[in-house]
Amino acid sequence: MDLSSALSATASTLRRRPADLLPFYLLGTAVPVIARMGLFVALAGTYLHYELTGQLDAARRALAELDLTPPDTQNPEALEAWAESVVPALEPLASPTALLLLTAGTAVSVLLAVLTYAAVSAGQMSAVAGRVRGGRGLTAGIAGVRGRWLTFLGLYVAELLLWIGVSLLASLAIGGAFLVNPFFGAAAALLSLLVGLVVLLLVRAVFAFAPAAVVVDETGVVGAVEGAGGFIRSNPVDALAYLVVAVGVLVAISSAASALAFLGGGAAVALASAVVAAPALDLLKTVLYGDHRGAVAPVDPVDARLRDQFVGGVRRGWREMTAFVRRTPGLHAIAILVGVGFGAVGWLAVDPFVGTITTSIESRLVGHLPPAAALNFFGNNWSVAIATSFGGVALVLPALSSIAFNGVALGATAALEQNLAALLAFVAPHGILEIPALFVSGALGIHLGAVSWRAFRGRLSREAFADALEDAFWVLMGVGVLIAVAAVIEGFVSPYYWRPFL
C-alpha cells in the first residue's frame, strides 16, 4: 500500500465511528490526573501528620507574628532579609516524617504514570488494530489493556536501555580516544556522534513500528522488534514516508504550540495533538504495517461532508449530555458536594494569609486579548473536563480528586482576592455555563468509575464497558459545547461589562 492510500484509509477510519476509537485517546489525557494520586495521598498524610503533632499550629503562630508581604524585588538585600525572617517560622514543618511521605508519594506518582501510560498505550494501539481489521475498536482496546500492558512497558524499557547503552558506548569510545591522543579524541568524537546518531535513528524507527507489530502480530517484545525490523527492511520507502509524515506533524504541532502559547492557545494545541494527531499517526503506521501482514480490512470512504459530520456530532453530544444529566441526579449531587465542600476547605485553609498574600482579578486581566483568551479558556477547561471524566476509569478516586483540587484552588483564590465583588462579577456570566459543565464531567467520572469497578469484578461484559466509554465520549462532546460558549463569554464579555459599575 502506498502512502496516499494509507493516508486515505487513515482518514476514513478516523472519521467513521470516531466514538469507537477516540475514548482511549481521551483517556490518555487523564494519565497525569491518575498519576498524581500518589502525591495527593502523601500531601494528605503530611497534613494529618502536622495536625496531630501540633507542628502546623506552631508554624501558623510563628507566621502570624511576621509581615509576610514581600519587599520590592529590585532590592536583593531586602528580599534576602525578608526570606531569612520567614524561614525560622517554617522550621516546624521541616519534619523527617513529612519528607519521607512526600518522597514516597512522588515515587508512587512516577510509578503510576509509567504503568498507566503503558496500559493506556496498549489500549490505544489495540483499539486501532481492531478498527483496522474491521472490528469494534473499544472492545479490542479493553482487551489490549489487560493483555498487552506488560508488553508495551517492556517496549518502552527496551528502547530506553538501548538509548542509554548507545550513549554510554559513545562516551567510553570518546574518553578512551582522548586518553590516547587529543587528535584521536576529536576524531572519535565526530565519528561517534555520526554513528551514534544513525544508530539511534534506526532504534527509533524500529520502535516506532514495534507497537503496531505487537497488536497486528499478537506477539511479545522480541517478536515485535523483529517484526518491525522486517517491515523496515521489506518496505523502506513506506517506513521512511511514515517517519517523514510523523516528523512533519510533530514540527507543525511544535510550531503551532510555540505560536499560540504566546497568545495563550497552547492548551488547545495540546488537546488537538492528543486526540487528533496521535490517533491519526497510530492509525497510519498500523495501516502500513497491517497491509504488510495482510491484516487490513477494506475501508470505504466517508460520503458525508466533514461539516455535516461535525454538526451532527455536536447535536448528538448535546442530546447525550442532557440525557445523562437527567438520569444521574445523584452523581451530580455528589460532584457538587465535593466541589463546594473542598471550595470551603480552600477558603478556610488560606485564612491565616488573608491580607498578606493577595490575588487580583484586575491585575490578571492586564493585557487581556479576547480571541486568544477565549481559545486558551476553551482548551484548558475542556482538557480539565476530559481528564476528570476519564480519570474516573481508574476506580473513581482520580475524578473525585480532580473535583476536590479545583474546588480548593477556586476557594483559596476567592479568599485571597483583593476585590471580591469584581471577581464575582467576572465569573458570573461564563460561570453559569462553565461550572455546571465541570460538575457534569465530575459526575461522568464517578459514573465511569462505577462502571470500571463492575467490569473489574467481572460483573459487566466487555461490550457493555465499551458502550459506557462510547456514551461518555458523546457526553463530553456536549460538555465541550457548554465550555466553548462559556469561553467566548469569558474572553469577550466577562472582563469588561462590570467595569462601569465596580
From TrEMBL:
Keywords from the UniProt entry: Membrane, Transmembrane, Transmembrane helix
- Membrane-spanning parts: 21-48, 98-120, 153-177, 183-203, 240-261, 267-284, 331-350, 435-453, 473-498
A Pfam match is SpoIIM
Q: Which domain of life is it from?
A: Archaea
Q: Which InterPro entries match?
A: SpoIIM-like (IPR002798)
Protein name listed in UniProt: Stage II sporulation protein M
